[in-house]
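Deviation from plan, reported transparently: S-adenosylmethionine complex.
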Amino acid sequence: MGPTPLARIDAVKVVEPDGSGAPNSIPVVDLFSGPGGLAEGFAGYRDAAGQPRFRIALSVEMEKSAYRTLLLRAFLRQFSATGFPSEYYDFLNGDEREEPDWAKLHPEQWETACDETRQLTLGTSAATAFLSVRLPQLREQFGDRLVLLGGPPCQSYSLVGRARNAGNADYDASKDGRQLLYQQYVRALRELQPAIAIMENVKGVLSAKHNDKPIFRHILQRLENPGGEKRYGLFALAPPLGDGRCNHKLEPRDYLVRTEDFGIPQSRHRVFVVCVREDLEPAVSADTLARISQRME
Ligand SMILES: C[S@@+](CC[C@H](N)C(=O)[O-])C[C@H]1O[C@@H](n2cnc3c(N)ncnc32)[C@H](O)[C@@H]1O
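Because the crystal trials were delayed, the predicted structure below was used instead.
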């Protein structure tokens, strides 16, 4: 008996809520996007009226396959309300061997997707030149009602990565450029002055050192004061003490979110720092603080 054929993917059942963004939805800029999971969560969020509250305005990623995922998702989100193009299902179902030429089939949506996603290596002059034009454009277009996301690379912070580096006699953390890529995020924070910024990282960032100094406290200082006109108040999502405010009362480990505490069947531990622009801080109600710092019983 041969293998059981895979079920065909039914075009009608896989219709997502419209992720292309309502007119007043809040634009999101996602750096070090990977395949875009974090921003995808924002794009998928709906308010009580079922309207999308956020739309992805820009994603930047250097790695080709992750970038291709970003690009395809940016393209497909534009069809969310009506259902994805039939050629997409034909391709998934193996009816078409080659990925369809989306640029030919749906030029307008493809162009929008290409504009939203960029395959660039942050820290290079090409990426810096691009952002120095695009970030001011976004500010001009949307004002300061923006969200910045980003997970600067984790390989050199991750505990596995550090164990691997420790076995490499030639490895010198002070020369590892990946340790300093958070500076690209801080630079975007300074130039964009978003209302909110969220920095995500692996647990290893809490104990990582650069030039023998703990890097995480330094990152927190740079997020609080990225060097431009605006400062930021830093919040932890799930601090054990519960009041959500940092400002040196919380310890680095308080920024750690343990997914198993939130009913997720996975023990993934990630660091999240939520930066709220200081002029907006008074608007963050005690209710919200209680909610963002609450754990499941
Ligand atoms: C931890 S992943 C981000 C995951 C993402 N936030 C998500 O939710 O899917 C970090 C990503 O940063 C990318 N990256 C590393 N260095 C980069 C650089 N200099 N410029 C752009 N992207 C970079 C890596 O290729 C990787 O995909």
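The CA atoms of residues 104 and 110 lie 9 Å apart. We consider this an acceptable substitute for the interim report.
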